[in-house]
Write a structure and sequence with these properties.
The protein is an all-beta fold and 118 residues long. The protein has no helices and eleven strands. The strands form two sheets. Strands 2, 4, 5, 6, 9, 10 and 11 form a seven-stranded mixed beta sheet that branches.
């Protein structure tokens, strides 16, 4: 399974960060697949943002829940992240990743840098 993030690399404060992950080599609706968004701010460790499961139900990091939406487009094998009301603290490398709960395997995209300007 391959994943590729896409979206703007620069977002202004108070605006919405939107990223898309395109999936190939696997079905976005396959059982036991969980499609994640993870970010890593500069100088910090990775931070899980949320996931959308094979059923289409999404779960979010509690601290980001009020600003986050994860959705999927099954016809295009894509899932997306929207993060509202961004601040410079949202600057990070954003990754999409698959967790296969059957094989206990993880697959990652290469990551995309998003900078929020003040």
């Amino acid at each position: 399974v391959q994943l590729q993030e896409s979206g703007p690399g620069l977002v202004k404060s108070s605006q919405t960060l939107s990223l898309t992950c395109t999936v190939s080599g696997g079905s976005i609706t396959a059982n036991n697949y969980y499609w994640n968004w993870i970010r890593q701010p500069p100088g910090k460790g990775p931070e899980w943002i949320g996931y959308i499961g094979y059923s289409g139900r999404a779960y979010y990091r509690p601290s980001l829940k009020s600003r986050t939406s994860i959705s999927r487009d099954t016809s295009n094998s894509q899932f997306s992240l929207q993060l509202n009301s961004v601040t410079p603290e949202d600057t990070a490398v954003y990754y999409c990743a698959l967790w296969d709960d059957y094989s206990k395997s993880a697959y990652w995209g290469q990551g995309t840098q998003v900078t929020v300007s003040s």
